[in-house]
Amino acid sequence: MATNPLLELRALGQSVWLDDLHRAMLEDGSLELMIREDGLRGQTSNPAILAAAITRRPEYADALTALLGTGLDALGVYEALALEDVGRAADLFRPVYEETGGRDGYVSIEVSPHLAHDTVGTIAEARRLWRALGRENVMIKIPGTIAGLEAIRSAISEGINVNVTLLFSPERYREVADAYCAGLEDRLARGERIDRPASVASFFLSRIDTLVDRRLDELARAGQSAARALRGKSAVACASRAYEIYCEVIASGRWQRLQEAGARTQRLLWASTSTKDPAYSPIKYVEELIAFDTVSTVPPETFEAYKRLGRPELRLEQGLAEASDVREALEHLGIDLEDVAAQLEKEGVRKFIEPFDGLQAWLEKRRREH
């Protein structure tokens, strides 16, 4: 009997979520099939994913026509479509949420990317989206920027589930973990339960390799022969350091006190898992970062590739020493991974703003033509 590597990952303690969302999968039964047969445990979306779905897929035509006739502005139309999709997906995942005691079964929606550096605005929008969806198994995506840290703490303290997005720096992840703990401590100080607020910290992978590999190629052409051997190793090296920090956090006395009061760990979620360089395995970022109590969110093509090619084994912890050597070698070559992270965070915000604004312009044009 053929095995399913996706189900084997679940047996190893890693949850697989789908990094995609559109109306067709909600209507044709394909999402439900992945949940039932492949052990899919959750779903993530972002402004780029939703913009592509709304502007390109015919399933939105009737809903668009109806909404454009209501007098809503472009942003209102977008939110109505996005909230319906996220809500319907969350309802499909509700049995997973119940079966896992609230550990999995989440669907994520992001605050406006224009709020990435606006703490007050992010808190207000997180509250508004949380109330509008009205489901326990939704996560509000808040970017892990400096401004986002206080918003993360505030949301968790109010019982809003948070998916922290756009993380590229292990040290920023440490600050995110601190914000999560602080939010739980705020609840405890008010005598409120902390066994339900849930959070993941989404660490982005392939974009790190794309940027660092480009710098390594330049160094190799300049005569630094050692640079070539480091291609494709930076992202996993950074993620491995984040995992070490996660282990430090959950071993701390601070976390033990929270856990005794009912808190659940803020799992690391591996994001940006599609391989950009054709020289690398299409399942590279899933295969190399398998670890207990983590999440891997994958686009459909990576999901299918892992189902065919995956060889599940707990590998992340086995590679921690090598990852440390990689970070040292990169530093020796003058590549500062914290500088890389800062650049990628800035680019990441822009890469979400552009499709978000493009969608608003497209909807506004359709509204005027209606």
Low confidence ranges:
none
Number of helices: 16
Helix content: 55-70%
Task: Give the rounded overall mean pLDDT.
Answer: 97
Q: From the coordinates shown, what is the CATH architecture?
A: Alpha-Beta Barrel
H-E order: HEHHEHHHEHEHEHEHHHEHEHHH
At the fourth CATH level, what is the homologous superfamily? Answer: Aldolase class I
Straight-line N-to-C gap:
55 Å
User: CATH top level?
Assistant: Alpha Beta
Q: Looking across the biggest beta sheet, what order are the strands in?
A: 1-2-3-4-5-6-7-8
CATH topology: TIM Barrel
> Rg to the nearest angstrom?
20 Å
Overall geometry comes to globular
What is the beta-strand fraction?
5-15%
The largest sheet is:
8 strands, parallel, barrel
What is the number of strand segments?
A: 8
| Overall tally of domains | 1
Structural class: alpha/beta
